[in-house]
Fold this sequence. Notes:
By secondary structure, this protein is mainly beta. It folds into two domains: 6-56, no CATH class; 63-283, Exo-inulinase, domain 1 (Jelly Rolls), CATH 2.60.120.560. It contains two helices and 19 strands. Strands 4, 6, 7, 9, 15, 16, 17 and 19 form an eight-stranded antiparallel sheet that branches. Strands 5, 8, 10, 11, 12, 13, 14 and 18 form an eight-stranded antiparallel sheet that branches. It has a three-stranded mixed sheet with strand order 1-3-2, covered by helices on one side. The longest helix has 20 residues, at 36-55.
Amino acid sequence: MAKMKLVKCLLSKRENVVLKKAGKATRFELATPPSKARYNWILSACFIAALVSVTGCASQRLPAKGEDWKSLFNGKDLSGWIVKCKLDDKNKEFWSVEGGTILADSIGKKKHDYVWLVTQKEYSDFMLRLRFQAYRNSPGNSGVQIRSRYDNEAGWLDGPQVDINPPGAWRTGMIWDETRGVQHWLYPKVPRGKWVDKSMANPDLVFYYSDEGPGWNELEITAASTRLRASLNSVKVMEYNGEGVLNDDIHKERNVGLNGHISLQIHTNDELKIRFKDIYIKELLGSRVTK
Length: 291
């Protein structure tokens, strides 16, 4: 039996109205309105409430205009982004725009090194919000690099990465540091050479594949000085203080950790299919952008 929710609109005489949406029914107890216009207005407001109860409030969390949020993806092309990879992978068209989304697709093509989609602009202190769509049949790993920098001669991207790992969704939100001389997990903290496991993840983590729920995940990353935080679908999955790490001599030498580019990853030798959209950034006061 469909779950019934009673909404009371406090007027005089009452009557019941039942609205149905996606197999669920929501009952509203409405007063007899003084006029037909008043009735239509109240009914419309209650119908909006019904949609929220069924579909959730995800769309309301998207940045609104006038809140100092800037879009990093125009929905049409890769303006503002550049593909970074080794010469052998230069002609592999793994990154494209399809249906208003950024599509990473290396399915059926395992022979490749890391291939990155990197912002042309650098950022230091910010809040980043984006949506990504993951597929059950995609065995590859991805992630969002922040405050990172690509070395064209070495063919390597240094900097910390917020992991996105569809084959083991529990790992999403953890921090792997790609910086040469580091290259281990920063969060959760494990001894060098050790790997993370499912017991270290937030048990309340929520992850959607393309065929379930809304089909999209909302990821928010905050970087303020040496402090990093990430939430996935409004659930906190990472909070890390990198004092003494992100600002150590190794990161200073590579000019990463505290400022740099944002990048989306296709992991080396991985078959990956993943989509990104609704990518917004809000730079925080005191941001130390160098370029």
